[in-house]
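Re-running the complex after MR caught last week's input typo. The corrected sequence lines follow. Everything else is unchanged.
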Amino acid sequence: MVLNSLDKMVQLQKNTANIRNICVLAHVDHGKTTLADCLISSNGIISSRLAGKLRYMDSREDEQIRGITMKSSAISLHYATGNEEYLINLIDSPGHVDFSSEVSTAVRICDGCIIVVDAVEGVCPQTQAVLRQAWLENIRPVLVINKIDRLIVELRFTPQEAYSHLKNILEQINALTGTLFTSKVLEERAERETESQVNPNSEQGEQVYDWSTGLEDTDDSHLYFSPEQGNVVFTSAIDGWGFGIEHFAKIYSQKIGIKKEVLLKTLWGDYYVNMKAKKIMKVDQAKAKKPLFVQLILENIWSLYDAVLKKDKEKIDKIVTSLGLKIGAREARHSDPKVQINAICSQWLPISHAVLAMVCQKLPSPLDITAERVERLLCTGSQTFDSLPPETQALKAAFMKCGSEDTAPVIIFVSKMFAVDTKALPQNKPRPLTQEEIAQRRERARQRHAEKLAAAQGQVHAEPTHDGSALEASPEGEQPTGVGQQLESVTPNPEPQEGDSQESFIAFARVFSGVAQRGKKIFVLGPKYSPVEFLKQVPLGFSAPPDDLPPVPHMAYCSLENLYLLMGRELEELEEVPPGNVLGIGGLQDFVLKSATLCSLPSCPPFIPLNFEATPIVRVAVEPKHPSEMPQLVKGMKLLNQADPCVQILIQETGEHVLVTAGEVHLQRCLDDLKERFAKIHISVSEPIIPFRETITKPPKVDMVNEEIGKQQKVAVIHQTKEDQSKIPEGIQVDSDGLVTITTPNKLATLSVRALPLPEEVTQILEESSDLVRSMEQLTSSLNEGKNTQMIHQKTEEKILEFKGKLEQHLTGRKWRNAVDQIWSFGPRKCGPNILVNKSEDFQNSVWPGPAGKALKEASRYRDLGNSIVSGFQLATLSGPMCEEPLMGVCFVLEKWDLSKFEEQETTDKWNKEQSDLIKGGQEEIKTCYVRDENQEQQDDCSEPFEKRTAQKGESVLTDCYGPFSGQLIATMKEACRYALQVKPQRLMAAMYTCDIMATSDVLGRVYAVLSKREGRVLQEEMKEGTDMFIIKAVLPVAESFGFADEIRKRTSGLASPQLVFSHWEIIPSDPFWVPTTEEEYLHFGEKADSENQARKYMNAVRKRKGLYVEEKIVEHAEKQRTLSKNK
Amino acid sequence: MSIFTPTNQIRLTNVAVVRMKRGGKRFEIACYKNKVVGWRSGVEKDLDEVLQTHSVFVNVSKGQVAKKEDLISAFGTDDQTEICKQILTKGEVQVSDKERHTQLEQMFRDIATIVADKCVNPETKRPYTVILIERAMKDIHYSVKPNKSTKQQALEVIKQLKENMKIERAHMRLRFILPVNEGKKLKEKLKPLIKVIESEDYSQQLEIVCLIDPGCFREIDELIKKETKGKGSLEVLNLKDVEEGDEKFE
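Corrected-run output:
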């Protein structure tokens, strides 16, 4: 059946006016796929008995198991009414929130949509979401109120109750449409206002403020759903029936003898028929008359259900004969009433007819695309249509015309890529051989047989011929004759299909204009492509072959390799696709990532990006079970990224592969795909690593119970003093204001370092201008070498000056005098948010590019040592003392740098060396002590025997038993910085997300509850104009965000959807090392006080993860350990 | 003698003994399991949570209490609690199962962290995560040696992991500035130690920027110092050559 109708489909595709591109949208479980099943069964693709149970469009295994749709998929259906034949490209979409991105891809390529609403559940959150999406894409909706049978069977409503219930639902939906409409009008108005503010000359006369908001002037009656307009259908997809008002109006106009037009208007609404007068009257509540809808329609259906459920044989027969239906004996005898109802109703009120008739009548064909929609599609971001180049504006006409002539530009939009098993592609599928092919093969086999016989007869003579025939036969694959063998697959494209990769990508696309022909060359325009740029580069009216084009970003040129008709799970090959159709395109995987615009003219702008209702927020780290399978994972993730419109994949600096999905269900699907299709390896999933930063603050003025520090008497807690001592080892002097003085292990150099907290603004400036700092660093280093080849670019110089000025502006006060000029380095990695300031007198060096050649001679003596100091600083800022996380917002001041002893040594050593040259290596004292310095990178790496090094030791003065002096200096500087930090109040900084939440007013309270539970802070809350939606802005620590999206959705039953974006670092106010010291604190928190210290919790978690020492008891209570008994 | 009933037996399986020899005599104290190490590191502050009893023994398992004279001659005091504290901090400890377990686990993690910190995937120049390294270490059945430093063990682990997966130490980026006349000769000697030479410049001096394996740093450093007699210089540009920043698949 399907195969036969392929030609018919091709035929229908050419008649653009009779094409309907529609999608089915609804909340999860409102019956989209079941409805689709019913429509498909009307084409005979699946049996009508299986409709609703098969869920044909859910082709994935997990879709069938879970019972929800997870992807949008298209099918082409044929529908004939009267003498018109229609082609309906139906797209089934998922209803679950996690897959709303799939809805976006479906909506983009449709002209109309069917909104399905459950008659019992009414309007649900996703219904709102999909309505909004349809609205934003400017496509026209029709309404299907589904599951009417539930009103009868489950809720046991009377027809009257059912009617008022249905009316209610309709009102809710119309109210939603109304809000969408008003918010749009208000937005437009606001835009107009801002415009008029920009050029106030235009409307000078209008001084009076117009309060009317323009709502009254705009007609919105056509937007609403109402049965009398014919855009509402009542159905029960599971029982296979459905009707519009029109159907009954036709019947009753004959029966009662009232004009059809009158009935159409009155069948829905509070009207009743006066049978005697044959007149329709307005319902008078007092008389308690039943409305027409109840009397003429619902009651009939109710009585049918009643009869069947009660198994009233006679009554059923009566109804069936009166309706003129024929029920098969099998169904009539069936004991399950559902089967009977299905059999009767699907004949009486076939759902496919009701729905498809409405679709064909009410929804626009591709020809009717509105100018407004075209403009919207073409204008990216804030651009207005008028600002586009004229070549682009000309395309609008092509859109509107949707012409299929050869001259019409081909415009195709690819809304997503989906992966198909290569074996499932039509060209690779086994297909029955034609008669000729069978004959050919038979002939060949016969020949071979004859040759074999001949060869056997004259072995010696036939030797060369035998060889020849063997060669000849080998390309055929030596097929033995056999009946089964004739169905062997024939592959017209014998090229290897990428060896092991079994997935091919098919683009899910629609032709907006022109004819897509196989093999046609076409431009592929990425979402960031700009036609303006292209037109700048290429002169107007170019005719050069596209291969010579200058490379333009986000543009490629390729040919359409394979075109397919999408038939649910199946694909059918096509030669060409006329405009207005949905199609699949193969062979684009190297050109298109997720979505793209294909056009035969490069002047076409890419379509506006898809409007995703849900942004990916659930983050997990993915790793292969076996580390050697890393390459497969990366490859698999790349494929997944292409196949899913919504997923995001990141490789973080830590080496983690992070998968960001829209929700837990989506995550599960992505992981399944990764495991079974794309990577085919075992993977493990974990929470992503949460980064922290370490910093210091000014000493606090008040303690934890808000008492001023200093007034209180310290409680002599034993451990307090003990801890203070243990922090700082001997040999390091610390004075009262935090100056740390430390000497290198060989006692030759002494460093004094102080740590200061940087003001917040400075940290921010440093963060923002890290790129600038990096380039500056390169510049200075090349200058320092005396190479002045690289002239400073004028612009960079200005930028540097501006940056310097900004720093100076914020670093004011006595403490910071001259500090900016004395900045020596930034760290970590020479561009981070920490500063090293050099305040020692005898050595000047700064990061700022000064006049070239300034005092370089003098500096070079110290350069090596200076580098060591900077390296030490870099190492110290890379991993702080608290939990080895990078520092942020700390300034280290090198106050003194005493090298006098080192210089002395150098001179004496020179003399010594001369001496030792005379007496060959005799006096050299070989020390065998080898102190292992834990913090010295280079030293640890030496694995060669120690003797070798001591033998070389005499050669260099800079090396002694503690390793090279530069290494010592690095380690000492690092230690100095660490201790300088530790004497100051240390704090952790947590990464923060900003969190935008859209929520309706009734779930606002729950949103707040979830936020506060997770340590979030609400910054602002405002109401969206014209709707009852609130927009809440909050900040939330990244550490608390795992599972946040899921929780907030669960708690608000999906009415609030958060979006998380990383924003900044924030200091956690509590001190991770805090213990109660004053009397009050002691009373308030008790001795341990570890109950609510957030910072300590974070710190210990990180330390544990890294295998660092954690101050935790292995066993809390000694007595409560399990007592092991020893058997005697 | 006390009556030997199950209730008044203290089983030695649940006692951790800390021993100390002083003045030619052996002293022991009875402690709770899994607590002594905590006391030593300062986490546990309550002495009663550590000691089973404040008395000092000569032999805990036999229940022989130390004589007062012996205590005075050995410690100079007869304050049992003071002596207990001394023994606790200085005596030989039996490490209990949980203590050993946490220590080994900590070292295992530490090793994995060091390996992850030092190494990259040579194909992507990105580091591996600690969890992945831990799993790989378990796959090769690496057992932690408690008496070797974690850094030494980490270097060993890297060698062993190389056989199973693509892992390499992150290269170090260095810059040498060598005098011209010795430069050429020296370069030949340095060649086997250098992984990649990124740039060479022969203007006034020979300047080379290159990537090396960090293990060779000392050799190179000494070679340069020796050959150029202190004229050549060496500068560490980057301790680890890894990809920075996040990468988004597009």
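None of the earlier attempt is carried over here. Chain A has a mean pLDDT of 77. The first strand of chain A starts at residue 19 and ends at 26.
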